[in-house]
């Protein structure tokens, strides 16, 4: 590489829109749950690209799939279909309640499709007055204007002018508030079956069952945003399968492609009829390259041993975090399920989640935050025991520098 073409972190400030503030290090290589930066320094990856790299970096099944497909065909318009898209759709409908699939490029687009389907169904079947969407405070559903409005964090949606209307936000896990508000005007309830960005908050069994019952009572659709919880993340292929409640529409993305951009909306045949030809679309949705990679991911993740392994790894993380907490008294609790875990900081450590993230990076460990008070862990679903132990050791050393 010539000197003038050398890529440094400072170039970001010159050429990139400043809506991100990336770390100083630039990763250049990954294998499994390990990453190396430009200087050859090694990191253990407990972040997984925010719950995306479900098989780690450069998993052979994914590398083989994209290489093989890259030598066949890359892109087709929606005037025709393709083999990887059809195979992937069949595999997705085989592992869950859904009968029909719409492919997109991201979680936001999958959620956009879900919301548009709900509104279209309500208008077709019940009339234009049935248009209210109920979502939950601290929820996150993407960055398009519709999805960011439905998401329950005003800091992300304010300042862009008038918002899409008829969206109501209620407190998560508050049955009384939901019972008091829902009506026959409600067309859909959208929720994460485990809030991710909002702090790794699990629903109570009573809450999630009541949501389903109230949707049935008021002829409203239940939309599960499984962008972060799906594809094995919680130890079930989709999180709803561990809750005993089935949605009408489900969105999936992030780990569906294991790092290759792809999203999907899953639903029933009856609901799918309301998205007739011309009512919705996506230029790249169902792209052969993306679908070939996602097909390989689904093949690996859907194996019983992979899903069982998620729960085994969860136990290792919880045990390790407990031992760290015994030493430093930093966490009030460890929340979440499977390998979507959040270590909530106690009263003495409020507001210092990013401090932990930065200190971990200095020790060669990549972690995440979920707000100012939760350190988030979303590693590879097949991370090795050795990588977990090494990463927890680095976390121990990082916290020691902050005490």
Could you characterize the architecture of this molecule?
- With 403 residues, the chain is an alpha/beta fold.
- The protein folds into 2 domains: 3-58 and 304-400, Alpha-Beta Complex (Aspartate Aminotransferase, domain 1), CATH 3.90.1150.10; 73-301, Type I PLP-dependent aspartate aminotransferase-like (Major domain) (Aspartate Aminotransferase, domain 2, 3-Layer(aba) Sandwich), CATH 3.40.640.
- The chain is built from 14 helices and 15 strands.
- It has helices spanning 10-15, 48-51, 60-70, 83-94, 107-125, 145-150, 154-157, 175-181, 205-217, 269-272, 288-301, 304-328, 353-362, 385-400; strands spanning 27-31, 34-37, 42-45, 100-104, 132-136, 167-170, 186-191, 221-225, 249-252, 263-267, 331-337, 340-345, 365-366, 368-369, 374-377.
- It has a 7-stranded mixed β-sheet with strand order 4-10-9-8-7-5-6, with helices on both faces. The protein has a 4-stranded mixed β-sheet with strand order 1-2-3-13. Strands 11-12-15-14 form a 4-stranded antiparallel β-sheet.
- Helix 9 (205-217) links the parallel strand 7 and strand 8 (221-225).
- Helix 3 runs antiparallel to helix 11, helix 4 (83-94) runs parallel beside helix 11 and helix 13 (353-362) crosses helix 14 (385-400).
- It is globular.
- The relative contact order is 0.16.
- The mean pLDDT is 96.
């Amino acid at each position: 590489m010539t000197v003038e073409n050398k890529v440094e972190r400072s170039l970001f400030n010159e050429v990139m829109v400043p809506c991100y503030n990336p770390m100083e290090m630039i990763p250049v290589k990954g294998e499994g749950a390990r990453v190396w930066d430009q200087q050859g320094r090694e990191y253990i990856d407990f972040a997984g690209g925010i719950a995306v790299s479900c098989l780690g970096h450069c998993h052979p099944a994914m590398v083989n799939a994209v290489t093989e497909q890259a030598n066949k065909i890359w892109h087709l318009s929606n005037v025709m279909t393709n083999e990887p898209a059809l195979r992937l759709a069949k595999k997705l409908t085989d592992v869950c309640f859904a009968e029909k699939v719409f492919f997109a490029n991201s979680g936001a687009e999958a959620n956009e499709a879900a919301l548009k389907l709900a509104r279209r169904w309500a208008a077709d079947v019940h009339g234009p007055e049935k248009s209210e969407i109920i979502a939950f405070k601290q929820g996150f559903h993407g960055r398009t204007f519709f999805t960011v409005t439905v998401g329950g964090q005003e800091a992300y949606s304010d300042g862009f002018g008038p918002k899409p209307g008829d969206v109501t936000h209620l407190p998560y896990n508050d049955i009384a508030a939901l019972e008091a508000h829902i009506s026959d005007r409600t067309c859909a309830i959208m929720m994460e079956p485990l809030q991710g960005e909002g702090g790794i908050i699990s629903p109570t069994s009573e809450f999630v069952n009541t949501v389903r019952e109230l949707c049935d009572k008021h002829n409203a659709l239940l939309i599960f945003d499984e962008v972060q919880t799906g594809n094995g993340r919680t130890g079930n292929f989709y999180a709803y399968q561990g809750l005993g409640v089935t949605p009408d529409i489900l969105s999936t993305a992030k780990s569906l492609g294991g790092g290759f951009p792809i999203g999907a909306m899953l639903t029933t045949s009856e609901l799918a009829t309301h998205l007739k030809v011309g009512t919705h679309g996506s230029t790249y949705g169902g792209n052969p390259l993306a679908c070939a990679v996602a097909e390989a991911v689904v093949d690996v993740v859907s194996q019983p041993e992979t899903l069982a392994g998620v729960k085994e790894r969860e136990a290792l993380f919880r045990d390790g975090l407990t031992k760290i907490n015994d030493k430093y008294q930093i966490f009030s609790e460890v929340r979440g399920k499977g390998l979507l875990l959040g270590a909530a900081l106690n009263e003495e450590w409020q507001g210092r989640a990013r401090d932990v993230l930065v200190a971990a990076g200095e020790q060669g460990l990549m972690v995440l935050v979920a707000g100012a008070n939760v350190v988030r862990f979303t590693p590879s679903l097949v991370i090795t025991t050795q990588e977990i132990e090494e990463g927890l050791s680095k976390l121990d050393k990082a916290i020691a520098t902050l005490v």
